[in-house]
Structure prediction request, 221 residues.
Amino acid sequence: MSYQHQYVDGTRIHFPLGKVVCIGRNYAEHAKELDNPIPTEPLLFIKPGSCVVPAEGGFKIPAERGSVHYEVEIAVLLGKPLSTHPSEEEVLDAISGYAPALDLTLRDVQAKLKEKGLPWELAKCFDGACVLPPFVSAASFEDVTDIPVRLTVNGEVRQDGNSAMMLNPIVPMIQYMAAHFSLQAGDVILTGTPAGVGPFNVGDELVLELPGVSRFESRVL
Prediction:
């Protein structure tokens, strides 16, 4: 299925996307809350573009497969390809937008996979595992090392972070990714989640924010 996704300024991109490149444990406090070691180098994994759904109108979760955890993240949309060893200027020029995204995780499934030393795809790549609201223009932020992100569930702030807290800042992170595999226009980068992750329940009302710049309401159907 292909559908359109809208920027706040009206620009449209089309799904399914090529890929969603993610970094795990990029906030020290999040690693600690799950009793995970803090990585000594970026921990990367990829979600297929087919797992992306829009936040508008609400989204479904596969509750029958166990606990479904929310992880709010700053999503970076690339408007130009990057490969080999891009400079800081090339990375910043390639970024076209930002959004407060949800990286959903089947936590019970992931725990069993980790116990066996197996990859996480079954826990991270199911249909609907990446929830994206509209992007705002990259020009909305002068400093990519100071981008706030927040998730509120049923009126309670559950996660409240900032790119300043990242172990791997946005530009060096994307440079590291591009050094290992090509990034394409339309790819989305999920930059890691701050502490405070937890389970969603059907009926939850939520607000996704890049505070002061963008705010979107959604719900779990």
